Automatic annotation (TrEMBL):
<keyword id="KW-0503">Monooxygenase</keyword>
<feature type="compositionally biased region" description="Low complexity">
    <location>
        <begin position="142"/>
        <end position="155"/>
    </location>
</feature>
<dbReference type="InterPro" id="IPR001128">
    <property type="entry name" value="Cyt_P450"/>
</dbReference>
<keyword id="KW-0479">Metal-binding</keyword>
<dbReference type="InterPro" id="IPR036396">
    <property type="entry name" value="Cyt_P450_sf"/>
</dbReference>
<feature type="region of interest" description="Disordered">
    <location>
        <begin position="135"/>
        <end position="155"/>
    </location>
</feature>
<keyword id="KW-0349">Heme</keyword>
<comment type="similarity">
    <text>Belongs to the cytochrome P450 family.</text>
</comment>
<dbReference type="GO" id="GO:0020037">
    <property type="term" value="F:heme binding"/>
</dbReference>
<dbReference type="InterPro" id="IPR050705">
    <property type="entry name" value="Cytochrome_P450_3A"/>
</dbReference>
<dbReference type="Pfam" id="PF00067">
    <property type="entry name" value="p450"/>
</dbReference>
<keyword id="KW-0408">Iron</keyword>
<dbReference type="GO" id="GO:0016705">
    <property type="term" value="F:oxidoreductase activity, acting on paired donors, with incorporation or reduction of molecular oxygen"/>
</dbReference>
<keyword id="KW-0560">Oxidoreductase</keyword>
<protein>
    <recommendedName>
        <fullName>Cytochrome P450</fullName>
    </recommendedName>
</protein>
<dbReference type="GO" id="GO:0005506">
    <property type="term" value="F:iron ion binding"/>
</dbReference>
<dbReference type="GO" id="GO:0008395">
    <property type="term" value="F:steroid hydroxylase activity"/>
</dbReference>
Length: 155
């Protein structure tokens, strides 16, 4: 022990960000030891700490007129967050396909769900259903009993 003070809020915040990045995207960002602020951290903070004016305006539009909200295209989150995470996720998926990697994370669960949906609907996209990379999905017989089918989109 060095006897130095530790700022617990920053330490726990860094740990939380590392856990989220690992569990959701299978990435390692090491925010505690990396003293520069990465784009991932900046955009993830925007997700969790939205702009007060944006939240306020969204709440007003929802209560006044949901049609106006839809017509204006106003979003709850800052659009820059989507502009960052969409290409990032696409790059992670491309890397997994090229390196034939299968992770244990939320993104992999979404890929598996997409594969199952493709099998159920018999609309197979060869790039989305690469069992060598993403693993085998459950048999369609066990899933045909499920009445509630939903669509998963990339957006």
């Amino acid at each position: 022990m060095t006897g130095e003070d530790v700022e617990m809020k920053k330490t726990m915040g860094s740990l939380t960000m590392d856990v989220i990045a690992s569990c959701a995207f299978g990435t390692k960002i090491d925010t505690y030891n990396d003293h520069k602020t990465s784009e991932f951290i900046v955009n993830a903070k925007k997700v969790f700490h939205g702009s007060p004016w944006r939240i306020w305006l969204f709440g007003i539009l929802v209560n006044i007129s949901p049609k106006l909200l839809k017509w204006t295209g106003f979003q709850f989150m800052d659009p820059s967050v989507e502009k960052f995470f969409t290409p990032a996720i696409t790059a992670i998926l491309a890397k997994r396909k090229s390196e034939k990697v299968r992770q244990r994370d939320y993104l992999q669960l979404m890929i598996d769900a997409q594969n199952r949906m493709n099998i159920d609907n018999e609309e197979l996209d060869v790039d989305d259903l690469d069992e060598e990379i993403y693993g085998k999905t459950e048999s369609t017989d066990s899933m045909n009993n499920n009445q509630n089918k939903s669509n998963i989109s990339k957006s």
